[in-house]
Design goal:
Blueprint (H helix, E strand, L loop, with lengths): L3 E6 L16 H6 L7 E8 L9 E8 L8 H6 L7 H7 L8 H4 L7
Antiparallel strand pairs: 1-2, 2-3
């Protein structure tokens, strides 16, 4: 299990979406311009906290399988299970001093 993940926009799409804010749902039209089968992100994982000698390694690329589609079904039925950091810290208690919750008084950094 990685200590953390980092998603870096892939060069194939890095400049397709402007960084300036254009309104709440403007991004939906911008996403329609993403070509099918595009590489979206390079995914990196930290093997453990850098303070403990962890290294960042490229673990893959997040790539579309076809086109992006608007979908009410996904809005209402597609959910992602999140793993609690506490479960990881039971396996790696040495990571505890370097977890984000310690530096934010127990609050989620996101």
């Amino acid at each position: 299990m990685p200590f953390s993940l980092r998603f870096e926009p892939h060069r194939d799409v890095a400049n397709l979406i402007p960084s300036d804010y254009k309104g709440d749902l403007a991004y939906l039209d911008q996403l329609a311009g993403v070509p099918a089968n595009s590489n979206l992100y390079k995914v990196y994982a930290m093997t453990k906290p850098s303070q403990l000698g962890g290294k960042e390694v490229n673990i893959g690329t997040l790539q579309l399988d076809g086109n992006l589609h608007k979908s009410k079904w996904a809005d209402e039925n597609l959910f992602f299970r999140h793993q609690r950091q506490d479960d990881d810290l039971k396996i790696h208690p040495e990571w505890e001093p370097f977890s984000a919750r310690n530096s934010l008084d127990g609050k989620c950094p996101f």
